[in-house]
Every structure is written in C-alpha cells, then in structure tokens.
Amino acid sequence: MQPVLEMYAPDGFDLWPVAEVESSGFLPLSGELSPAEVGSAVMRIARCNDIDPDGSRPPRPADALGSFLHGLLTFDNLFAAGGLRVADNVTGVTFLPGCCDGLEDWRDWHQFIDDGSLLGFGHSPVSPVAERFGNTVRLTVNAEQSDGPVIELSVADLRNLLADAERDLADFLVLAADWASRHLPGRCAPVTGALARVVGLPAPTIQPETWDGGGLASPAKKALP
C-alpha cells in the first residue's frame, strides 16, 4: 500500500524545479523522493487547489508564485487527487484510487475497518470498491465488472499496511518541509502546514541539511513528531 498522487505533465511549469513524470500516472509519496519529485508533488497539490476566490477568501496576490499558491494557503478544506494504491505482488493485481478519491480521505480506510461499511472510490466506467467480510477485506478493482480482478487480505494485514502508508506520508512531509525551506523560504511554514493538513498529520520541524543523495537522511527522521 502506497499513498500516491495522480500526476499530469508539468506543461511548462517554471516556478520551481520539478521532475518529469508520466502523464496520467501516480507518484508514490515517501521519504525516498528526490528534491525534484518533491517539487512535482507540491506543484500537483497546489494545482489541485488553484481555484479562483469566490468572495469567501482574499483575492489572489499579483505575483505569479503567490497567485499559484493562493488556494493551497487559503482553502480550509484542501484536495489532492490520488489516494492509496494497493498492489498484490503475487497476482500482479493493482487497486488504484478512483475518480472520486483524494489523498486527504486516506483515513476513511480506518473507519472502513472499524464499521465495515462499503467504501467506494469512483463511479462508472471504473468503480474501485473495498468491502469487509468478517476478518477478510476484498478490494475490487472495478465493481462494474462482475468477474474483474480483486485483492483479498486480512483486516490485520490492512491495519499494518495503513500504518506503513502513514509512515510514508510522515516521511514525505519531512522532505517537503526541508524542500520548502530551500525553494520557498518566505512561505515555508504556511506551505508545510498546508501539506500537513492535506494528509491530516502534524507539520514536522526538521533540521537543515536533511538530503542524503536524494532521499531522507537519518537526522531528519528524528524530528518526526
């Protein structure tokens, strides 16, 4: 299980360095991302919330950077296209986030485990669905197909996978905070806080110099709350 963002091509984005990503693909979030990949993730989350104010929020700033970050920094309820991706390494079946899914909703999986209610992530033509049958969880890749691929796992295994996914998100936030201190020094705190609100985790406080060859160095992990 991996927390992922649904990505699109940067389309000439030049406010900060970003990585070349596969269009209409998914970027896994973790502590192993390169600085450019973190930049791509921040760009995508900001772009998801780049919506003109409707009167309930302050007007956009005139500068390009402030304008692009405005939604991320002013919306109360933030959205990030994506969710949790589950792959069965034995069968090769992959359960992907659906069109109605968002990374900010990842904790719905915990509620699903507790109350057992059907959890849907999209609608026709592709409707990913999670169902619980006693101590077994069935993930149906597309409920529109009567005999489509499924992943089955125990409730205990799903709890463990969710704990791993939460650690990945926490590690990503540490990278993102350090990235923001370097690329958005005047907006580091609000950007980091907004990213933390997206995933519902505390904003980290990290020490400088946490990049270690494109990944998360051990000193930064000590700063996790």
Could you explain the architecture of this structure?
The chain has 225 residues and is of the alpha+beta class. The chain has two domains: 2-79 and 169-221, no CATH class; 87-163, no CATH class. The protein is built from six helices and eight strands. The chain has helices at residues 35-48, 64-74, 108-115, 155-183, 188-199, 218-221, and strands at 2-7, 25-28, 82-87, 94-95, 119-120, 129-133, 136-140, 150-154. The strands form two sheets. Strands 2-1-3-4 form a four-stranded antiparallel β-sheet, covered by helices on one side. The chain has a four-stranded antiparallel β-sheet with strand order 5-6-7-8. Strand 5 (119-120) and strand 6 form a beta hairpin. Helix 1 (35-48) crosses helix 2 (64-74) and helix 4 runs antiparallel to helix 5. Residues 209-214 and 217-225 have low confidence and may be disordered.
Write a concise synopsis of the structure shown.
The chain is α+β, with helices and mostly antiparallel strands.
